[in-house]
Specification:
There is one protein chain. With about 150 residues, this protein is mainly α. It folds into two domains: about 100 residues, no CATH class; about 55 residues, no CATH class. The chain contains six helices and no strands.
Length: about 150
């Protein structure tokens, strides 16, 4: 789940790295990451979150007026800390892969629309081929020996 949170924040990180400002899609990414972190806190998956889940109080989520204030505050601090750590990792990844991101952005700007196959080719030419195997399901990977549709 943490990887999904970092991935959600990576869009914002790339915007900041390349454009020096967030794009309109970043607000959705932030909401998604925040919802995931809150769910992790509620499930007791955050290091600094209270042991008692808000659901133990019959409350569905952090920030409820029905939850004791000290627990709301503790959950809030745990969520803030997790978001800050995930954002730092996303910014680090964006900076590390800046040239690949710029190469992919150039292709997208020129082409405007990409089919799935064109996107795969753009990812390859931008030097991010390792993400292709994660993007496609095993039966969609041509030439992959583990793929059921692969020619052998």
């Amino acid at each position: 789940m943490r990887a999904e949170i970092i991935t959600s924040l990576a869009g914002l990180a790339v915007d900041m790295e390349v454009l020096d400002e967030p794009s309109t899609g970043s607000s959705h990414d932030i909401r998604s990451a925040t919802s995931d972190v809150i769910a992790m806190a509620d499930a007791g998956m955050l290091e600094n979150a209270p042991f008692v889940s808000p659901s133990a109080f019959g409350v569905s989520g952090i920030g409820s007026l029905e939850l004791p204030r000290y627990l709301n505050d503790k959950f809030g601090r745990a969520v803030e800390k997790e978001m800050a750590q995930a954002k730092a990792q996303a910014l680090e990844l964006a900076a590390k892969h800046r040239e690949n991101v710029l190469a992919l952005a150039r292709i997208v700007v020129v082409r405007r629309r990409l089919s799935d196959n064109d996107l795969l080719e753009a990812l390859r030419s931008a030097g991010v081929e390792e993400s292709i195997s994660r993007w496609r399901t095993p039966d969609e990977r041509p030439g992959d020996p583990s793929s059921p549709t692969s020619e052998r």
